[in-house]
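Technical note accompanying the year-one report. For the benefit of new consortium partners, we illustrate the data format agreed upon in the data management plan: each record pairs a sequence with a structure-token string. No post-processing was applied to the example shown here.
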Amino acid sequence: MLIGKPPFETNDVKTTYRKIRMNSYTFPENVSISIESKGLITRILHLNPSLRPTLEEILNHEFFHTGNPIPK
């Protein structure tokens, strides 16, 4: 949602599922994304669910408290 497309999106469903299983995603180079937002996204998409942040941790993350602009 931050950049306007899903992180694992491909043109092929099988490839999309493979990317999800492998947790294979990248941040586009042509879109300016803050370090805070990259850090939050990386934590939320952690392969191991037990290492993902809780909702409270997400809401308290610095991304929501540093005035980061959402890219267009």
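Partners are asked to follow this layout when depositing records. Residues 13-22 form the longest helix (10 residues).
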